[in-house]
Amino acid sequence: MIQETFVADDPKSAYEEAVGKYGAGLKLLSAKQVKYEDGQLRCEVAIEVAEEVFLAKSCDAIPSVQHSMTPSSDETALLEELTTLKKQLASMKEEILGVEDDSVLAKVKKLFVSKGIAKQWLDDVLISLMGNHILNDDTLLVSYILEEIDESLKVVEESFDSPKIMMLVGPTGVGKTTTIAKLAARYAYMMDKPYKVAFINLDSYKVGAFDQLGHYADIMQIKHVTVDSVETFIKGLESLHDYDVILVDTAGMSPYDTQKFIKTVEFVQSDIPRKIEVNLLLSATVKYEDMDDIYTNFSFLDLHSVIISKFDETKHLGTLLNFMLLYDVPMSYFSIGQEVPDDLLVASKEYLLERFIGDLDG
Ligand SMILES: Nc1nc2c(ncn2[C@@H]2O[C@H](COP(=O)(O)OP(=O)(O)OP(=O)(O)O)[C@@H](O)[C@H]2O)c(=O)[nH]1
Ligand SMILES: [Mg+2]
After folding, report:
1. What average pLDDT does the chain have?
2. Ligand 1 atom with the shortest distance to the CA of 311
3. Fewest CB atoms within 10 Å of the CB: 31, 108, 248, 337?
C-alpha cells in the first residue's frame, strides 16, 4: 500500500482532492490541522491506496511513499503577494467604510456587530450602498441589512421523493438523539402519509450507557438496529432496504476528536446504494469562538443541512445567524424544546429572523 498526504485549508477539501485523484477506493488514515511556517493553519489528510492504483493515477513519474502538497517556494511567494493584496484591499475598504462614530452607518453596524453578526460580512454587504441615501436613515438601513440576511439564508425543503438515510452528527449533548425521536414521530405519525421509519444506532462509544434511542424505538414501535462496524452497518442497511427513512444516530463528537471523525467518515463513505444525508446538529447557544472549528471539522462529512437545537435556551441568535451567513449550508429543522415530538419545527427564515429582530429591538 502507498500512503499520501493531501493538504488544504479544511479537511473536506483535502479529502476531496484525494478522492478526486484516486476515486473512492482509498482508505482514510488520519486528518489533522497543522500550523505551517507562514502561520496559516492547514489540514493534512493522510490516505492509503493500493500500489497499482497509485502508479496508475499518479502523474508523478517517480513514486514516493510520502508525497506532500506543501506549496513550492514560487507558490509561497505568490501566496504572500496575494495575502498582501488582500490586506491592501481590506484597508481600502476600511477607509471607505470608516465613518464618524456618531453616523447612522456606524451606529447600525455597531448594533449588528454587538448582536453577533461579523463586521466583515456587514462591510461586504454595505460597500454597495456607498453614496446611497439609505446610509443616512437608520430604519431603512436596518431593513436593508435584514433583507440581505434573509436573502443569504438557505432552507432545504423536506423531500420524500426517494427513500433516504439521515445521519445526525454534532458535538456532545446538542440534542441529536432527542431530535431523531422527534423526526421519527413526525415522519411515521404526523404527516399526510405515514412513512416507514427505522433507527440505526452508531452511538456505540458509550458502552453500558442507557439506550436512549432504544427507549424511543420501543415507545414509538420503530424498528431499531444497533451496529458497531462498517460491515454491520451495511448489513443493517440491507435489512432495512424497504424503509422510507432510516435515521442514524451517532455519538457526540468534539470537533477535535479525529479518531471519531475518521470512524464516522468510514460509515458515511461506506459502499451502500443510497447516499447518506449528513445533518449537523448545532445549538442555538453555540459560542462564537467555537463555530469555525465546528464547521471546519464537521463539513468534512459533506453536510446536507444544519438542524438547530435549543432555540428555547437563548434570546440571542446573532452568533448562530452569523454561522449560517458565513457557511454555505442550508437549515432543515429547528428544535425548540425538550418535548418529543412536539418541540420540532421545519426550518423557516421568518422564524429565525423574527427571533433575531426581537433581540435587536430588546
Ligand atoms: N432546552 C432544550 N433541550 C433540548 C433540546 N433538544 C434536546 N435537549 C435536551 O438536551 C439534552 C441532551 O439531548 P440528547 O438528545 O441526549 O443529546 P445528544 O446530542 O444525543 O447527546 P450525546 O449523544 O451525548 O452526544 C437532553 O436533556 C435533551 O432533553 C432543545 O431543543 N431544547
Ligand atoms: Mg445521543
Report:
1. 86
2. 31
3. 337
The pLDDT tens digits of the residues spanning 68-92 come to: 556 677 878 888 888 888 777 766 6
Q: How far is the CA of 171 from the centre of ligand 1 (A)?
A: 11
Probe target for ligand 1 pocket from 178, 285, 339, with the most ligand atoms within 8 Å of CB: 178
DSSP letters for 251-272 = ----TT-HHHHHHHHHHHTSS-
Q: Which residues share a beta bridge with 165?
A: 246, 276
* CATH class name, domain 164-361: alpha beta
Which is the closest atom of ligand 1 to the Cα of 309? 31
For the segment 240-266, what is each residue's pLDDT rounded down to a tens digit?
Answer: 999 999 999 998 988 777 777 778 888
| Residue in 345, 346, 278, 280 with CA at minimum distance from that of residue 312 | 345
Domain boundaries, the chain: 2-70, 95-152, 164-361
By alpha-carbon position, which residue is closest to atom 24 of ligand 1? 173
Helix residue ranges per DSSP H, 190-257:
212-220, 230-239
Q: What is the 215 CA–ligand 2 centroid distance (Å)? A: 12
What letter represents residue 178's amino acid?
T
- Residue with CA nearest ligand 1 atom 7: 175
**What predicted TM-score, i.e. pTM, was given to this entire model?**
0.79
Q: Whose CA is nearest to atom 6 of ligand 1?
A: 175
Neighbour-count burial of 206, counting CB atoms closer than 10 A to its CB (0-12 exposed, 13-18 middle, 19+ buried): exposed
Closest CA to 361 of 106, 116, 111: 111
Cβ–Cβ < 8 Å for 46, 5: yes
